[in-house]
Amino acid sequence: MIIVAAGKGSRFGSEIPKQFLPIGGKPILMRTIEKIKQAIDYIKIIVVLPKHQIDYWRLLCREYNFKIEHRIVEGADQRFFSVKNAIDSIEEENSIVGVHDGVRPFVGIDVVRESMAIAEKLGSAIPAINPIETVRLGKSENPNYFSSTYCRNDVWLVQTPQCFDFEILKKAYSQPYEIAFTDDASVVEKKGYEINLIKGNVENIKITNPLDIYYAEILIDEFKD
Q1: 144 C-beta neighbours (distance < 10 Å), count
Q2: What pLDDT shows up at residue 122?
Q3: Of 147, 149, 183, 221, which sits 20 to 30 A from 7 (CA to CA)?
Q4: Among positive and negative, which fits the CA dihedral 181, 187, 192, 194?
Q5: Where are the alpha helices (DSSP H) in 75-149?
Q6: CB neighbours (10 Å) of residue 75?
Q7: Distance CA 129, CA 73 (A)
Q8: Given pLDDT bands bounded at 50, 70 and 90, which one contains residue 12?
Q9: pTM of the model
Q10: DSSP bridge partners of 136
Q11: Has residue 203 got a pLDDT over 90?
Q12: Quick one: average pLDDT of 33-60?
């Protein structure tokens, strides 16, 4: 499992990158790694970090006595190249590889397991959920001019881990970078492969702003060690 953790935490007004911020007394990234390990005990974990954060992460691991085995790969400015660096470091060609956000510590154990299993069977598996709000389509440059209701059952909010056959993922990340690559599924789809969706879990939030931290502290009670 590739865990991408390259956030800077600028939205929090904090110098500490968001993946290192504590929830329930423990850094978010540690909780994310623990969840993946809990889902699949034998899984191999690669953590992608910016070069200047690697020493700090190792310091945190010593401070919290964090013992889960993982390999560190240096990241890049864009997520695409961070993931590519991790892919290029993998030697096991006959494998299933997942890519998970380092700031999604509440992914469901069953979601991780099913994502890997379906990817092994079909080549890809992407967890997603339907929105609960009504969805309307409108032009971003002038949404007041015209909009129309869209069936929310046909809309999917994409989560991670996004899992793929290694050969598919490696071929996809061999193509040139495009600004439209917002996740791994978009990279793989561009290469011509089909994307298979599975049901995600609503708690699997991506912690991106201070409000998410408050929500995460509430969720901790449901995901106690």
Answers
A1: 7
A2: 98
A3: 221
A4: negative
A5: 79-88, 109-122
A6: 22
A7: 30
A8: low
A9: 0.93
A10: 149
A11: yes
A12: 97
Q: What type of residue is 156?
A: W
Check if the beta carbon of residue 127 is closer than 8 Å to that of residue 115.
Answer: yes
Distance CA 222, CA 225 (A): 9
On the 0-12 / 13-18 / 19+ scale of CB atoms within 10 A, 35 is buried
Model confidence at 6, in pLDDT bands (50, 70, 90)? Answer: confident
CB atoms within 10 A of CB 141: 6
Average pLDDT for residues 145-167, to the nearest whole number?
Answer: 91
How far the first Cα of the chain sits from its last, in Å, is 21
Residues 80-99 have a mean pLDDT of 95
Dmax (CA) of the chain: 57
- Which pair of structure tokens corresponds to residue 49? 């970090």
Bond prior to 105 in cis (omega within 30° of 0):
no
The residues, ordered by sequence, that sit 6+ positions from 2 with a Cβ below 8 Å of its Cβ are 46, 48, 83, 86, 87, 97, 98, 99, 100
Residues in the chain, overall count: 225
pLDDT at 184: 98
Q: Which residue has tokens 């998970």?
A: 100
Set out the domains of the chain in order of their start, with CATH numbers.
2-222 (3.90.550.10)
* The token pair that represents 66 in the structure block: 């964090």
